[in-house]
Automatic annotation (TrEMBL):
Residues the entry annotates as binding ATP: 10-15, 119
Cofactor: Mg(2+)
Pathway(s) the chain acts in: Metabolic intermediate biosynthesis; chorismate biosynthesis; chorismate from D-erythrose 4-phosphate and phosphoenolpyruvate: step 5/7
Any Pfam family hit: SKI
Compartment annotation: Cytoplasm
Function: Catalyzes the specific phosphorylation of the 3-hydroxyl group of shikimic acid using ATP as a cosubstrate.
Protein's name in the database: Shikimate kinase
The EC number(s) this enzyme carries: 2.7.1.71
Cofactor: binding details: Binds 1 Mg(2+) ion per subunit.
Length: 169
């Protein structure tokens, strides 16, 4: 089975995905890392050198490659991945999707304490600018995230809770 974690930047997809994969003894795939290895460049370099439109095409190609490569895996997507092309339908056709619905205030706090350079959409922004960017972006993306098979609400989403919901859905 393929399990996809989706949600905004900073919602904890990479962190929780790694924990879940370990518990299930599944392979863990972080779509950003997979794409970086595939292209031999970082996410920041891909945004800078290719622009966001091309980044989204490369992200879709990486998503398809992961689906073809793995039978059982936990896949942490990048925050924008479900929101371009028919990616959300594609994800739901190939596995179970879990939306980590964490409040923007909590996400802002986490991201401010992290390295903003690795997330090119946030690099160079102040806390207030990040907060308003996240509010605006979530407004546009929620229609996609809401199509997830499982929705978990934060701020604190535990791996046990996620595992129970996965067993029941
Ligand atoms: N449950 C949590 N509580 C507090 N901080 C967290 C939690 N999950 C993740 N973080 C922190 O928030 C930041 C973003 O987490 P990450 O897993 O990379 O999110 P995503 O992959 O959704 O962008 C990281 O600095 C991480 O250490
Ligand atoms: O929300 C987005 O558009 C993005 C999220 C990032 O992944 P995380 O959600 O893991 O930070 C990464 O794919 C890229 O910086 C763009
Ligand atoms: Mg991530």
């Amino acid at each position: 089975m393929l399990i996809f974690l989706i949600g905004m930047m900073g919602s904890g997809k990479t962190t929780l995905g790694r924990q879940l994969a370990e518990r299930l003894s599944y392979t863990f795939v972080d779509l950003d890392e997979y794409l970086e290895k595939r292209e031999g460049r970082t996410i920041a370099q891909l945004f800078e050198q290719e622009g966001q439109d091309r980044f989204r095409e490369l992200e879709r190609e990486a998503l398809e490659a992961v689906v073809q490569e793995y039978e059982h895996a936990v896949i942490s997507t990048g925050g924008g991945a479900p929101c371009f092309f028919d990616n959300m339908d594609y994800i739901n056709r190939h596995g179970k999707s879990c939306f980590l619905d964490v409040p923007v205030e909590e996400i802002t706090k986490r991201l401010m304490a992290s390295d903003l350079q690795v997330r090119p959409l946030l690099a160079g922004k102040t806390e207030a600018e990040i907060n308003s960017f996240l509010v605006k972006t979530l407004g546009l993306r929620k229609q996609f995230y809401k199509q997830a098979s499982i929705i978990l609400q934060g701020p604190a989403i535990g791996v046990e809770e996620l595992q129970i919901l996965l067993n029941n859905n």
